[in-house]
Structures are given as structure tokens and as C-alpha cells.
Amino acid sequence: ILKSDAAVDLVHFTILRPPEKQDGTPISQLSLIAFPTRELFSVKIDEFDLIIFDRYRRRGVLPTVYFDNIARFVRNGGALLVASGPDFASSTSIYHSPLAPVLPATPTGSLIERPFRATVSPRGARHPVTRGLPGANSDPPAWGRWFRAVEAVPERGETALNTSDGQPLLILRREEAGRVALLLSDPAWLWSR
Q1: What's the rounded Cα separation, in Å, for the pair 186 and 50?
Q2: Strand-pair category, 79-83 with 50-54
Q3: What's this model's pTM, rounded to 2 decimal places?
Q4: Mean pLDDT over residues 119-123, rounded?
Q5: What CA–CA distance (Å, rounded) separates 113 from 107?
Q6: Residue 13 bridge partners (DSSP)
């Protein structure tokens, strides 16, 4: 979606190789460019509108101070989307970083691993992000099944989507001048199918 809009400048980095993997490959051959963490998360962070963590887990790539900067970025008017998977329930979760105070839910450490259909919550039916979703008004909803979600306790914000048994799936929150969305599942790409 973001790539299809010519008005959007998208900076996207994918970390395919965890730092702990050691197979003798020289560092200079691991990427085409060095990951500009200091430039992105200290110098230019205020130039962004949205930061997305897609199935991210802490592996030492981003120092703790950069998570502080991201939390400040959100409070000052930026937006954060965390699309999580099993990583959010683990000890390497970004929840266990300075981002915790801006995140709207606390992971329990458990996963929901069974097929379910996402449902729009009563608050989600009125929220601009999820109201009017095609297929939401039928029972069951007229969209594909999801197969995994992270169990979490909503602490603040609004639950816009739930699992079929009422567990939170998408939680939206205003944090001072900014906004945060926490999607507690990683196979969302199935929806587009």
C-alpha cells in the first residue's frame, strides 16, 4: 500500500540475517549498504511520519537509546505500527524496551494458535480505522481465517479488532500527540488473499 502512493517516501530495511548467525561470511559481504541506525533513529527520526516494526525482535541491532528516541517520536506526534507475531510474546519482545510505556498492551507470553476469524469490536465499529470494513457485518465475517495471535492484556487504548473468542487483535492508542497501533498477529497477509 505504501509503495503504491507516489507521495510517500518509503525507507524500508529488512533484516534477513540475525547478528548471532556466524558462518564466516565477511561483514562487508552481508549487505549492499551499512544499516544507518544512528542517522535514522537519532538524526532524521523527526522527519518520519510512521515507523513500522513488522515481526521485529530485539537482537542488538538497535541500541536501547534508539527505542527511547522512538518513544519520544511518538509522544511528539509521530505514529508507530507494531505488527507482531510470536516475537512479541518472547523475552526478545520490543515490549521489553523503552517502547513499553507507549505500547497499548502487555504480552502474557502465550500464543493463540488455532484458526479464527477476526471480528470488529463494538468500539472498532465506530473507529475510523476499522469502521466500514467490507465483510465485517456478516456472521461470521466475510474474510479469511487467521491462524495465530499473541495473547496480550490491553492496558490502554481501544481494541478495534478481536479474535473470534474475544481476545484483542488490533489495539489503537493516542499517546500524547502521537498514535500507536498494535496488531497482535503476523499472518495478516492472508487477508489480502
Answers
A1: 19
A2: parallel
A3: 0.84
A4: 93
A5: 15
A6: none
